[in-house]
Amino acid sequence: MTQAPTPTADTVRRLVRSLLKDNPPDTGGPEVRPVAEGGHSTWWIGTRHVLRLAADREAATRRRRELRLRDLVRPHVPVAVPTSVAQGEWAPGLTYTLDTKVPGGSAEEHDVSAVGEADLAGLLTGLREVPVRQAEALGVPRVAPRSLEALRREAGRAAELLRAADEFDAARLQQLTSPAAVQLAAQPGSAVLVHHALTGEHLVISADGRVRGVLDWTDTVVGDPAEDIAGLALAVGSPAAVRAATLAGYGARPCLRGLWLARCDTLIRLAAGLEGRAPEPLPLLRTRVRRAWEAILLERVTELRDEETDDAGL
Description:
five-stranded antiparallel β-sheet, single chain, disordered C terminus, alpha+beta, three-stranded antiparallel β-sheet
């Protein structure tokens, strides 16, 4: 298999010159610089555009699908979805898309306000309204819900490692019992369009705490809506994630399931980070653990009935 070329600043600059015809020929084009989260695959182009380069054939397939999916999603959500102003191949079989930049910072830079939580609720509501058949017709895969019991066992091993490293009180994970994990299994027929990567770097937040846009739709699936609640718990904290999900009409079960997905995932990722097996920096992994484990009344629930959310402290 031929190894894909690594894009350089010169590669990006030559491509951008051919795409942005409004730049004077003697200026050399706009400034180009790599986006930290994207490595060599995502580049800032001046102040108004972002260039995303597929690094392999699989990524190219996802990027082509993403362009069509964004058009499907856009009418349903109250926040901005990136718009492509140019697309094509930057190397044989490897695609690019030049997108307009959505103004704002990330959830790592700005806190989400109460109005911003309403924006997140609108996002979750809109994703639920996207026709699943149309998404699947575009090639969006359907993914089965994860086993919370299997995740609980894996998180238990991670919690013991973190306890030994004085990173986490492993007793806190005992709140998620084996019967509770079974009770929180995803319900049949609950699959919706799931962004599946609602982490802080993919939420565009304005200085006043409003959610202005959502980036990177390449990992989108049809599946468990609790996965997006879990993503929001990492990005904006568990209380805000549950408030947004509740505003979107989700009951106690998917909210609790989302919280425990987030809590188990963060322990597993931090343990991997301590062993040098995670790409994310340790400070970010620790921040995500803190956000996911923020106290919330839902964790005291012993019996969950979607029709009786008062028992869940909602």
